[in-house]
What does this fold into?
Amino acid sequence: MSSTLAPVIGIPVRLSPADAPDTDPRVAGANRIFDDIVTLVREAGATPLLLSPGADLDAALARCHGFVAPGGGDVDPALYGGPVGHPALYDVNREQDALDLAVIRHALTAGLPLLGICRGLQLLNVARGGTLHVDLAPGSVVHDPPTGTEWAPHDVELERGSRCARAYGRERLPIASGHHQAVDRVGQGLRVVARAADGCVEGLEPVDGGGAWLVAVQWHPEADVPEPALRAPLFEALARAAAPATERAHRPTGGPDPTARRRPGPRRSSAAGA
It folds into this structure.
């Protein structure tokens, strides 16, 4: 993929400062792995574009051929009718919610590829009218890393034939988990394509499997554990999915669409060619 035709992947920045007084230490972790996402997008052959709130956001969105909705703090429960003020909540940031939702809704409306990661999956579900478990009860699978550890590794089962399974080339995957919230009621137009052994929703894709490339996962594919080789596949799949939009954006006005299927012309008879 040449640099002039590299897809532009928009990524909303993280707005919560890690060095503010009384900041939850998980904020620093989210900010750090955000940088890993930017690096992986670039290594996949795409150009990352950091998206910030403000008057220039619409113009920046229009430059993008695909998007990543990254991880971060908890989604405001007011957005899905959840218990506002729950003691387990951390880093609820309404400005961050507004920015991330603007990016997700633009991707859905424009029909552009979208990769949702952890909080990004949760916000996608909320944007489609779904709800969340505000705090998972302890169970047979540990999703929230114990104090002093970064990740809670476990396996997930992927639906055969799903975009997620095709990207990884397997249907069982070891992943790096780091969340205490999860999907409760699945949003309209979405289906579950990955689950943990305890039934926790770990992946969402469109119901019909068609339309723009859309994959959202509850785990952190940018983590370098448990298998570093598993970091790249989803970012590479996103970059490939964004390539057609890149070609259209660079096509001269009125020029032929290289992605369109050509209709066969009229068949010439042998007599006509004699």
